[in-house]
Amino acid sequence: MSDAPEAVPHSATTAVRSPLADGEWHRLHPLTPLFRGGIVLVIVAGVIISNLRDRIVEFFLPVVAPNLPDDIDFDQGNPIDFVFENNLVLTVLLGVLAVVLILIGIFYLSWRFHMFRITGDVVEVRSGVLFRSHRRAPLDRVQGVNLTRPMIARLFGMAKLEVVGAGLDANVKLEYLSTPRAEEVRADILRLASGRRLAAAKASADGRPGSRVAAAASIVSDGITGIIVGAEDPVAEPESVVPIPVGRLVASRLLSASTLWLLVLIAAIIVGSVIGTPWVLFGMIPALLGFGAYWVRSITRSLRYSIAPTPNGVRITFGLFTTVTEILPPGRVHAVEVSQSILWRPFGWWSIRVNRLSGRGPTDGQGDQFTSIMPVGTREDVERVLRLVLPSLPEAEWPAVFENGILGPQPDDPYTNTPRRARILRLLSWRRNGFLVGPDALFLRRGVVWRTLAIFPLARLQSVSIEQGPISRAMRLAAVRAHTILGPVSGQIGALDRDDALTLFDTVEANTIAAAARDRTHRWADAEGA
Amino acid sequence: MTNTPEPETPDSVPTTTDGVDGTDPVLDAGTFTVIREPRSDARLPLGDGTWHQIAPQYVWVRLISTAIIIVLVVAAAVALTLFTRQVWTWIPAGIALVVLVWTLVITPRQARAYGYQLRRDDLVFRRGILWQRLVAVPYGRMQLVDITHGPLDRGFGIAQLKLVTAAATTGVTIPGLRQEAAERLRDTLVDVAETRRTGL
Q: ipTM more than 0.90?
C-alpha cells in the first residue's frame, strides 16, 4: 500500500486514520500473552510447584548448598521456615526471579514474533519463535469480520479480531488489540476488501464522530463505556436496528423443541418412578441441571442482540458476557431460511438461519451461533432482516417471500407445488411444498407444522441436481436439490412433478450462470463506484 | 486483482468442436456408445447434446474388486465356522454375499448409465438407472479437479476424475475414464473454469 504515506509511527496514540493498515508489519497489544493463556500458565506452574515442592527442594538443595547436613527431614515443615533457618533467602529469591524473568522473556519473544500486516490485497499473520507460522487471507475472499470481546479481556479494554476466510479453519485471528485499535483495523480491512482505497475512504472516516471522540477520551472512561454499552458506532439509521425484547427471547427459548423433549423425559421419569422404584426420580436432577445450563447459555448468548446495516454489510451484535460483533459483507450469505415451529405460531414469531462460511471446522461448537442470525422476531423484524441480508432481491419478488412464501399458499399462488397425485408423499404439506425461481433467487417453501421458506441467492449457488428413485418414477415425480456450502439450510425439495422438476433444474442452472456472471460482490464497493 | 471475473466470453470452449455431431476423438475413444436408461417413460430424459461415456474397462475393474471382496468374505466366514464352530456367522456373511453378488450383476448396466456433457457454461453429469441422478455444475464454480487411479485402475489404463466445488453435496465423480480422456477433460475444465471464474 503506497497510498497511505501519512501513516504515523504506530506508537502515536492519536490514531490519525489507519496506522495499522499501512502495509507494514505491526505487533499486537503487549498484554496479549496474558490473555492468551499466560494466566493459565502461571496457575498451572503454581499448582505443579506446590505439589512437587518437596521433590524440587530435595533435588536442587545439594546443588545450591552443598555443605548442608544430610539429615534434614524434607517431608515435614514449612519450606519458608526451612529457608529462613538455613539462610537460603537470597538463593531462593534469585531462583524465583530467574524463573519469572525466563517466563517474561518467553512471553516477550512470542509477542515480539507475533506480527500482522494488512496490505491492499491480503491480511497476514506471522507467529511462533521456533516453529514459525505464516497465514495469509486474500481480502477479496473475506467472508466477514468478527470482533469478540470476552468478559475478562473486556475489563481491560481488549478485543480480538477474526477475519473469516473461505474454508475450514481458515480464519486469521488478531488477538488481542485494544478495542479502538481493533475497530480501526476492522474498518480498514472491510474498506480494503470492498475495493475502495484508504485515501478515498478518508472522507467517510471523518464522518464518524464516535470513534474520534472515543479515541480522544481517556482509557479509563473509554473502558467503562465499552464495558457498559459495547463500544460500537451508532448506526446512520437507528430505526433499521432490530432489537429483541428480553421477555420474548426467554419465552421463545422456553417454547422450543428441546422443552418438549424435557417434558417427555420428565413424564417418563415420573412414570418410571411410579411403576418401578422412586429412586428413578433422582435421574431428573442431572436432566434439569443440563437443560437449565443449556437455556441460560442460549439466552445469555442471544441477549442484547441487534442487527443493523453499515456501508460494509450487515452488522450483527450479540452476547451478554462475551460480546461478539460480526460484520457480514454483501454477497456472503449462501442461503437463508425463515422458519416457525408450531409452538411459536400463536405468537407470530420466526427465526432466521443462514448458510455462510464461518471459517470454522465442523468440530467447533461455536458454529451454531454464526448461522442463526435472528434467534426470534416478529414478521416486521423478519422482513427487515431479510432486506438487509438479501439486498439484491428486486422489489417485485418481495411478495413471493412473505405473502405467498412464508404464510402461503394464498389464492393465485405463484409457486409450483406438489401435484395432487403425490399428496400421499407429503400428507400434510403437499399444498405448501413448492418452489419459485426468479432471476436472482430460488425460493423453496416447505412444511406445515414446521413452516419454512428457504431462499437461495442464485449468484451463490454451487450446483443443482435432480434425482429420481423407483417410487418417484412410478408416480412420475422427481426431487431437485440446490447445492450450497455446508450449513443448516437444506436445498432439497421432493415430490415434484417430473416435468416441473426438469424445468426447475434447467431454469435454476441458466439463471445461476447468468447471476454469477453479473455478480460483483467480492469487491462490493467497486461496483458502486464504477 | 487475482480473480476479477471476465465478462461473458465468446464461445471459446475448446471441447466438442472436433466431431460434426459433438463427439470428441480423445474423450470418446473406446467408450460405451449408448446411455442405458430406465424403461419407464417417466424417467429423467436424456435431453439434447452429446453424452460422453466411460470406458468398458471400468466394468472389469469393478467386477474384479467386487470378486476379491466376495472371496474375502467367504474366506472369513469359513475360517470363523471352522475354528469357532459358530454357524451364525453365515447370517451376516450371507447378507453381505447377496448384496455383493447383486452388485456384481448390475455393475455392467450401471457402467453404461454414466454420462457427462460439456455444455457452453456448465458440465452435466448423470448416473444411475434405478436411482437416477443428474447434476449440473457451472464451470465457474469449480474449485479443483482431482484425478485418482488405484493399482487396478492403472492396470486397465483408467482413472477417476473428481470435480470439487465449495458445496460438499455436489458429488461429481466420473469413474472409468481412460487416462488420456481424464487428462484431456481435466485440462479442458481448468481452462474453462479460468475464463469463467466467479466468486464463491
A: no
